[in-house]
Specification:
heterodimer, B: alpha/beta, 2 domains, 5-stranded mixed beta sheet, globular, binds thiamine diphosphate
């Protein structure tokens, strides 16, 4: 069953609002990672508002589904989504990145309800998902485990270890999503340490591979629905995205990987993201 | 080299085995925690001429929080046999240290910060591996610091001078091999030592100095450093204060050791 026009409209509005909120948080915190947060926003919004079985009033409920932000530097997007989904008050976003704050620049599971594992050192999330997916299977649970990884992050050795582990255990309850925005901290992935051919690599390792436009809600919807029919192996969705998506001067550049916008810049950005 | 720190260390070992002098560069956390086994097995064990550089050290790491705060890098590197560990106090010393480690044939860990800290090196200063430098004379107590903490010690010394306490300040930029001679000398002269490090108090400068005075000339000492806890986000100033490694905290430690000495 495909997603309704109305639902898509709702999700798009939510994504805009999340983009605004994450930029305000980064501006207030004077630190953060706008580029990779904006590229991941549509995927996160879809997951949290249309996919995951989660319980904001009881975040650790046994039968919940799991999402892990392996590229932890996109925390501002995760926090904005968690707040919108009711895990904590939106007011909290004001303390992002500040001293004594629960909202660290990289998510800390001991401080924030809804954060499933602390991340920030890249390359580690997929392995954790393998453990969770195995545990979930052991418990006879139908819950699925989702993880978002970056394309720069995909260079990391541990991702490759996990990538042979998940198919080995036939984890069809695990879905990885690659935020393929083609830019990492200092520049284009292809120049720093090329990862192509991406789809072939995952296929060769035994994954079901689906390629989509990571900003198109109906494509995200279709891909995630499809992963539920895959049996006996994990799925990876290669989501082609734009780093800095939604703010013209932040798009497709490493300049906005890390750092905070000035007052004037944040105003311009919010103007572009108006309803 | 990308998000491939372990590979980078292996590649560097290959370069070194072929006679080159590779420098590897990444955040301090990844240069130590993440590649611990690669550095130990591919660089320290074969004693290869690789210079491992970790920028962003200790609690001051560009407001990235605990995941990017290298509070254990010195401890990790110090226990690797044959590893030289250097934490320059300012940019003058850093430039000299880079030259010195190029001339030195063997594995080195160079610990850097990315922010500006006050200069402390005296005029005509000449850095030498394994030689500490007295940056301030004083007879009442000795402050031993490394890296950016030397400037914090200098700040503390100023405050203490107003109370009539004259501090000797030592820049222990090489933490391994540590300058045993100077530590014993100042222990004898001032009979009280306060160490200051931008690092966990376990395994770093404080431990290294305690090892020397414990075996050679025990005197009262106190370690200023991060109290075996993970850090968090915040400005450098806020973090130095909250994690109790600011000049104010060095001053407090000095008052305590002086009290204990009598
Ligand atoms: C192991 C590790 N190495 C380096 C870093 C520093 N770092 C933070 S984000 C980043 C770039 C990651 O690129 P990518 O995964 O493509 O993220 P995106 O472009 O989606 O933000 C780097 C190198 C890190 N956090 N962890």
């Amino acid at each position: 069953m495909s997603i309704s026009e109305d639902k898509i409209k709702q999700l798009k509005e939510m994504a805009k609002s999340v983009r605004r909120n994450l930029l305000k948080a980064i501006y207030e915190g004077k630190m953060g990672h706008p580029g990779g947060s904006l590229s991941a926003t549509d995927i996160l919004v879809y997951l949290y508002f249309s996919k995951l079985q989660i319980f904001p009033e009881d975040p650790s409920r046994k039968d919940r589904e799991i999402f892990i932000l392996s590229k932890g530097h996109a925390a501002s997007a995760l926090y904005a989504v968690l707040a919108a989904r009711g895990f904590f008050s939106k007011d909290l976003l004001k303390i992002f990145g500040k001293i004594n704050s629960s909202l660290q620049v990289h998510p800390d599971m001991t401080k924030v309800p809804g954060v499933e594992i602390s991340t920030g050192a890249l390359g580690m999330g997929l392995s954790v998902c393998v453990g969770m997916a195995l545990a979930s299977r052991m418990d006879g649970s139908k819950s699925r485990v989702y993880v978002l990884i970056g394309d720069g992050e995909m260079q990391s050795g541990q991702v490759w270890e996990a990538s042979i582990c998940a198919p080995h255990y036939k984890l069809d309850n695990l879905v990885a999503i690659l935020d393929y925005n083609k830019i990492q901290l200092l520049g284009p992935v292809s120049q720093i340490m090329g990862i192509e051919p991406v789809a072939e690599k995952w296929k060769a390792r035994g994954w079901e591979v689906i390629e989509i436009d990571g900003h198109n809600m109906s494509e995200i919807d279709e891909a995630l629905e499809k992963t539920e029919e895959v049996k006996g192996k994990p799925s990876i969705i290669i989501a082609h995205t734009i780093k800095g998506k939604g703010v013209s001067f932040m798009e497709n550049t490493a300049r906005w990987h890390g750092g905070a916008p000035t007052e004037e810049e944040v105003k311009r950005a919010l103007e572009e993201l108006k309803d | 080299m990308g998000v491939c720190e372990q590979n980078m260390i292996g590649v560097a070992a290959g370069f070194a085995r072929m006679g080159k002098i590779p420098f590897t560069s990444t955040f301090g956390v990844f240069a130590s925690r993440r590649v611990c086994d690669q550095v130990s097995m591919l660089i320290a064990y074969p004693h290869l001429n690789v210079k491992v550089v970790g920028a962003y050290s200790g609690i001051v790491s560009g407001n990235n929080g605990a995941t990017h705060q290298a509070n254990e890098d010195v401890a990790i590197m110090r226990v690797m046999p044959g590893m030289v560990v250097i934490d320059p106090a300012d940019e003058i010393e850093m430039a000299q240290a880079v030259k010195a480690i190029v001339e030195y044939n063997g594995p080195v860990y160079l610990r850097l910060t990315r922010d500006e800290w006050p200069l402390v090196s005296p005029p005509n200063y000449q850095f030498r591996i394994g030689k500490a430098c007295i940056v301030r004379e004083g007879k009442d107590v000795t402050l031993i610091g490394s890296g950016m903490m030397v400037s914090q010690c200098m700040e503390a010394a100023k405050i203490l001078a107003q109370e009539g306490i004259e501090s000797k300040v030592i820049n222990m930029s090489t933490m391994k091999p540590i300058d045993v001679e100077i530590i014993i000398k100042v222990a004898k002269e001032t009979k009280a030592i306060v160490t200051s490090e931008n690092h966990n108090i376990i395994g770093g400068l404080g431990s290294a100095v305690a090892e020397v005075i414990g075996e050679n000339y025990p005197v009262v000492m106190k370690r200023v450093g991060i109290k075996d806890i993970f850090g968090e986000c915040g400005t450098n100033e806020e973090l130095l204060d909250k994690y109790r490694i600011s000049p104010k905290h060095i001053v407090k430690a000095v008052r305590e050791v002086i009290k204990k000495r009598h």
